[in-house]
Amino acid sequence: MRDYELVIVISPDVAEEDVPAAIEKINQLVAGRGGEVTQVDHWGRRKLAFPISKHLEGSYVVSQLKLEPGQAATLAAGLRLSEDVLRHLLVRVGD
């Protein structure tokens, strides 16, 4: 398994008290692909640099995870389908 860093911008349509549930759904998405979330850092609601789908702000979440290399593409596809996620960035950490 390789180490990855996942940055997610959660839609402002998700209420602030519902953000932990949205994060848990994403963690379950990772676990469903045989991965393991090792750390989650919720940065809170921030202003976006440019509008995304007519939204000007979103909740940022940075996660460290372990995942098989073949599952990274399927995880990214699942995140693209999620209505709660405005944008995501999955980056391999290390060599």
Write structural notes for this entry:
The protein has 95 residues and is an alpha+beta fold. The chain has one domain: 2-Layer Sandwich (Alpha-Beta Plaits). It has two helices and four strands, in the order βαββαβ. It has helices at residues 19-31, 72-81, and strands at residues 2-10, 36-52, 55-67, 85-92. Strands 2-3-1-4 form a four-stranded antiparallel beta sheet, with helices on one face. The protein is globular.
Q: Count the domains.
A: 1
Helical fraction equals: 10-25%
Order of helices and strands: EHEEHE
Please compute the radius of gyration using only Cα atoms: 13 Å
Q: Numbering strands along the chain, what is their spatial order in the largest sheet?
A: 2-3-1-4
Instruction: Tell me the CATH topology.
Output: Alpha-Beta Plaits
Give the helix/strand class.
Answer: alpha+beta
Can you tell me the CATH class?
Alpha Beta
CATH level 4 superfamily: Ribosomal protein S6/Translation elongation factor EF1B
The tally of strands reads: 4
Sequence stretches where pLDDT stays below 50 over 5 or more residues = none
Q: Average pLDDT, to the nearest integer?
A: 91
Number of DSSP helical runs: 2
Note the gap between the termini: 13 Å
Strand content: over 45%
The major sheet is characterized as: 4 strands, antiparallel
Give the SSE map.
Layout: E1 2-10, H1 19-31, E2 36-52, E3 55-67, H2 72-81, E4 85-92
Antiparallel strand pairs: 1-3, 1-4, 2-3
Task: Please give a quick description of this structure.
By secondary structure, the chain is of the alpha+beta class. The chain has two helices and four strands. It has a single domain, classed as Ribosomal protein S6/Translation elongation factor EF1B (Alpha-Beta Plaits, 2-Layer Sandwich), CATH 3.30.70.
